[in-house]
Design a protein that fits this description.
It comes from Maritalea myrionectae. This is VOC domain-containing protein. InterPro entries: Glyas_Bleomycin-R_OHBP_Dase, Glyas_Fos-R_dOase_dom, VOC_core. By secondary structure, this protein is α/β, with parallel strands linked by helices. About 25% of the residues lie in helices and about 35% in strands. The strands form 2 sheets. Strands 1-4-3-2 form a 4-stranded mixed sheet, covered by helices on one side. Strand 7 and strand 8 form a beta hairpin. It starts with a helix and ends with a strand.
Length: about 140
């Protein structure tokens, strides 16, 4: 529980104007075992309007937010990072319904009353992901 609350607080700090002076955007590297499958899965997860580019052989980048890219790359062995990449949603129920329609299981919503509603799940490659909604 504390880990989630700290992650959310850190995310709020990062979204505060002026936090990362000089940085226009960020890229998060995401290891996968199949670049083609990952491109399709993350394309579906992020939605059809997500910008996609392939800047170099073996690299696919998808715009996750206006200032953040996911950089997919093939890894022979998946590293154990302990990292969880969480995405803020405006309405957890609506987000879960949207992903269910796409066949993506985003896990059960867990509510910490007055603080957060969150869910955690993995992509098909074992990367830890999550959604969160701030009441």
């Amino acid at each position: 529980m504390r880990k989630i609350a700290l992650s959310i607080m850190f995310g709020l700090v990062l979204s505060t104007p002026g936090w990362a002076q000089g940085f226009g955007e960020a890229t998060v590297a995401v290891p996968v075992t199949s670049l083609a499958e990952a491109k399709a899965w993350y394309g579906d997860f992020l939605g059809p309007d997500s910008e996609v580019m392939e800047p170099a052989p073996g690299i696919v980048e998808l715009r996750a937010t206006p200032n953040m890219w996911l950089q997919l790359y093939e890894a022979e062995k998946m590293p154990e990072t302990g990292t969880v990449l969480r995405f803020l949603v405006e309405d957890m129920d609506a987000a879960q319904a949207k992903y269910a329609e796409r066949g993506i299981d985003v896990g059960e919503a867990i509510e910490v009353p007055g603080i957060v509603i969150y869910s955690e799940f993995t992509d098909p490659f074992g990367n830890q992901l999550g959604l969160y909604d701030l009441p």
